[in-house]
Amino acid sequence: MVATSSSLPLKPLSAPQKAMRKIGLVRDIDLALHIPLRYEDETHIVKLQDAREGDTVQIEATVTASEIQLRPRRQLLVTVDDGTDTCMLRFFSFYPAQQKALAIGQVIRVRGEVRGGFMGLTMMHPSFKAATGELPSVLTPVYPTSAGLPQAYLRRAIGSALARADLNETLPPQLAWPSAPRGQGVHSLRQALSYLHHPTPDASIAALEDRTHPAWQRLKAEELLAQQLSQHMAKQERNTLRAPSLKRKAGGWHDRFKEALPFQLTVAQQRVGQEIAMDLARAVPMHRLLQGDVGAGKTVVAALAAMLAVDAGWQCALMAPTEILAQQHFAKLVGWLAPLGVRVAWLTGSQKKKERTEMLCLIESGEAALVVGTHAVIQEQVKFKSLALAVIDEQHRFGVAQRLALRDKMQDIGMEPHLLMMTATPIPRTLAMSYYADLEVSVIDELPPGRTPVVTKVISDSRRDEVVGRIGAQLSEGRQVYWVCPLIEESEALDLTNATATHEELSAVLPGVKVGLLHSRMSVNEKRDVMAQFTEGSMGVLVSTTVIEVGVDVPNASLMVIEHAERFGLSQLHQLRGRVGRGAAASACVLLYGTPDGGRLSETARERLRAMADTNDGFEIARRDLEIRGPGEFLGARQSGAPLLRFADLATDENLLAWARQIAPMLLEKYPDLAERHIARWLGGKSEFLKA
Ligand code: ADP
Ligand code: MG
Question: CATH topology for 44-130?
Fold first, then answer.
């Protein structure tokens, strides 16, 4: 009989175990790959007479006094003496057990930052323990952790997991890891990990922190190899799947639509259109990323692809990440397609029940050839008659799970839909191609003719009045203006207060002008209302949080002011700026920056804003963004399109990526077992996700 897990008595998880699970630390290998944030040096003792103010040091001393003081607030005051000087330890919160450990006569090791002052040396809330046993010979790791998961518990758990984990090599000796400088003692994953968890005191902290140490290089190479392996496997698998072959019909919907367009397609649009058409004609699911700068005209390319599906008698779904954007797509597509007699359905979460039921019917009967909406499009209840093509706009904003759900819509007939993903936050093409080994990449590298480049100015918030003056000038010429307030990550409420205050300010200084407000807390109907007024031109100024980020198309808007521009990512700024300069009028974008406490903007921040003023080319901006933001900086995680990398950084590790890209197919072909083990080690249950 096979024992099932339910027949085994399961021990309930302790609180720290639960907390570990929550942050994904389940298997031994997960713990072994949980790398310290930083390190503390507890390997030697510093004499108090040598300790300088501001140093973080470890001392060993005897408690000579210990008392609880009640004023100005309750605190435990402990004096220690190490024979060279004394130091006062202050604790504002403490347990009785700690107080006992700090009783007079105890010899303790204390680690903390030394401060000077009127009373002599002090430490606030230092860590301490009894001075027993030898000093550690390696640096003490400090791990990223979460509530309910004490550092000490995590250290023990990682220590024993590291000893247990299967860290056998997954490359045969014939295939070498990228070469590291000699004599660094990193010849295996086990060595790399033991070093990263417990570096020796002579470690170059800089090399550890900027992740250039050979141990780091090894870890990154391993990670990138796993990523490439799973991409290659996904590609192999995809090639065994079937999709409907969608061929152009001469004189069909596609041709008639192209004929009826009010403009000429650019050469770039025609080229990517052909690339897509070639994929769609094959009976293998397309998996293509369409990159194109803001305003490059991706929507019409998507619509042409949709018409190929319709020509072949199938349906197409187009999804956008926000309701406003979906709404705009819908309006545009209906405008183009309804005159030709193509029925377009509309689906969002906020829809009235009656309308929704109608739409669901249209979709299930196949009457609607094209379905536009938010992720409501992929909900269970939505049944397509014959979905053949899914277009995902701003793909980086969609969760992988949502993309997987889309693919499920066709499983019952044993086929997969073709997938076209579109993005205006590009990563450089060569990088994209080598990273996404399982993705074809098309690029629209030219803007439609007749656009005037947007002039960008970087201006300090102290000159806000001048900027407001410029708004007046634009309005008097009949133009419209966007004013964007930053998203405050920690607090949506604060975010709102900010936008509301600016709205009031501008309403007050611009009498007789309709100033609108748009933010994420408004109902869908309210938002739609405001957008409608701005689109038709009765509203002069639109104050908004970043909800207008993508896709909004109001050609008469010629000025955009972005407040606290230093808080935005470059790609995000570029997207925002793309809202202006859509008509023939000269347009401008003002990047207002604030300086906290009247200080100066950091050099990095200044460099970033300067990059925005220097160029309007989204690819160039993406490149600079990668270059400027150092490793480990959080900014890019959302934008890089590669959130699944924990250790490697596409900006600095291109050479490792090139190596992994070369090794992966060889490993898969000649040593499939090792490849599988490597993927399981690195991606665990997550590899399914990478295929989406
Ligand atoms: P994005 O690539 O940012 O999604 P859109 O598809 O919204 O850009 O296109 C921006 C604007 O340019 C739209 O108003 C669209 O109708 C228009 N457009 C697209 N292609 C052309 C073209 N070849 N010539 C003129 N205008 C175009
Ligand atoms: Mg778009």
Answer: OB fold (Dihydrolipoamide Acetyltransferase, E2P) (2.40.50)
| Per-residue pLDDT reduced to its tens digit, 462-500 | 898 999 999 999 899 999 999 998 765 545 556 567 788
What's the DSSP call for residue 305?
H
Mutate to test the pocket of ligand 1, among 261, 299, 552 (most ligand atoms within 8 A of CB): 299
Q: How much of the chain, in percent, has pLDDT values that exceed 70?
A: 88
Q: Which of 200-209, 210-219, 243-252, 618-627 has the lowest mean pLDDT?
A: 618-627
Q: Could you read off the pLDDT of 363-410 as tens digits, one per residue?
A: 999 999 999 998 888 887 888 999 999 999 876 655 556 666 776 776
**For the domain bounded by 253-444, which CATH number is listed?**
3.40.50.300
Pick from 401, 437, 38: nearest CA to 224: 437
Residues with CB under 6 A from ligand 1: 263-266, 269, 292, 294-300, 424, 448, 553
Return the CATH number of the domain spanning residue range 454-615.
3.40.50.300
Q: Are 289 and 425 in contact (CB under 8 A)?
A: no
* Cα–Cα distance measured from residue 35 to residue 25, given in angstroms and rounded to the nearest whole number: 12
Q: Are 456 and 613 in contact (CB under 8 A)?
A: yes
Rounded to whole angstroms, the Cα distance separating 50 from 85 reads: 9
Whose C-alpha lies nearest to ligand 1, atom 24? 448
pLDDT tens-digit profile of 273-287?
Answer: 999 999 999 999 998
In this chain, the answer to whether the domains covering 44-130 and 454-615 adopt an identical fold is: no
Half-sphere exposure of 252 (CA within 13 A, CB side): 16
- The C-alpha atoms of residue 178 and residue 21 are separated, in whole angstroms, by 33
Helix, strand, coil % over all residues of the chain, rounded to 5 = 45, 15, 40
Which amino acid is present at 644?
L
Q: Which of 258, 263, 571 to mutate to test the pocket of ligand 1 (most atoms within 8 A of CB)?
A: 263
Measured CA to CA, the distance from residue 515 to residue 511 in angstroms comes to 9
Residue 127 backbone phi and psi in degrees, to 5: -85, 150
Sheet of 455-460, strands arranged across: 455-460, 588-593, 557-562, 480-484, 541-544, 515-518
Other Cβ atoms less than 10 A from the Cβ of 551: the count is: 24
Answer with the residue of higher pLDDT: 408 or 267: 267
pLDDT tens for 79-94 read 999 999 999 999 988 8
pLDDT confidence of residue 182: 52
Q: What are the φ/ψ torsions at residue 286 (nearest 5 degrees)?
A: -70, 150
Q: Per-domain residue ranges for the chain?
A: 15-38+140-210, 44-130, 253-444, 454-615
- Please count the CA atoms within 13 angstroms of the CA of 328 that sit on its side-chain side: 20
Classify 441 as helix, strand or coil: strand
Q: Which whole number is the average pLDDT over 199-214?
A: 85
Q: What angle do CA 272, 273, 276 make, to 5 degrees?
A: 85
